[in-house]
Amino acid sequence: MRTRKPQFALVNMVFLTLLFSLSACISSSNSLDPEDFKHAFPSEYYLYLPEGYSDNKYWPVFIGIHGSGGSGLDCWNLWQQYADEDGFILICPSLADASGGWSQSDGDQRLIAIINQAFRDYRIQNQVFLVGFSAGAQFVQGFAFRYPSYVSAVAVLSSGNFLAPSEGVLYIPFLVVVGDKDNSSLIDGASSFVQSLQSLGVSAEFHLLEGVGHSVAQESKDLTLQLFRKTAPP
């Protein structure tokens, strides 16, 4: 009697082929060279257009500001992977000078120039989402307080300092995140900052993350993206 040969080997081979192809696609999508997205004018920044970008609508803009001594690459490494899924144009300025820091006024003017350049080059919405880490978190506070008409929402992650808010940010939601392993003065400052915002009637959330030091944890990123999704116009 002739018996039918098992087809497991063929099925396994097909499965492995499909798995390899899928892995290759994922690897390809994650192998972008940020240098291909780097701009030198009007100031150094990286700009990524999400998959499906077209001029048929106005797109939300997500801007990440690095910490002291960093560059736009820090923002790229944190946020580029989310741009396609959440459908935002990512802008990552490099604000630090040779000393690793920058002044608020100089950073303000460079960021405004970059935003205005994006307005000329792409179909973008009138306001931008801002997130900053450490010194960048202090910077996004100052930018929002001085130029609230540019800003839709602000995420302040492990800020090195906190500024006195202005009433111009009344309609700008804020997210403030700090780790419980960070400097105790920064934790107290973050809590007081949120209270001062809330006293003005600003929508402000405060999150103290367990076991997190002076860094951008995954929970920080998740909370930031939640705020973006709630505040980005359709």
Give the CATH topology: Rossmann fold
Shape: globular
Query: What is the distance, rounded to the nearest whole angstrom, between the alpha carbons of the first and last residues?
Result: 67 Å
Which radius of gyration do the C-alpha atoms yield?
21 Å
- Please name the CATH architecture: 3-Layer(aba) Sandwich
**Uncertain segments:** 1-29
Percentage of residues in DSSP E strands: 15-25%
Mean pLDDT: 89
Q: Structural class of the helix and strand makeup?
A: alpha/beta
- The string of secondary-structure elements, in order, is HEEEHEHEHEEHEH
* CATH class categorisation: Alpha Beta
CATH superfamily: Alpha/Beta hydrolase fold, catalytic domain
- Total discrete domains: 1
What is the percent of helical residues? 40-55%
Q: Report strand order across the widest sheet.
A: 1-2-4-3-5-6-7-8
What's the layout of helices and strands?
Elements: H1 8-29, E1 38-39, E2 45-48, E3 59-65, H2 72-86, E4 89-93, H3 104-121, E5 124-133, H4 135-146, E6 151-157, E7 174-179, H5 184-199, E8 204-209, H6 218-231
Parallel strand pairs: 3-4, 3-5, 5-6, 6-7, 7-8
Antiparallel strand pairs: 1-2, 2-4
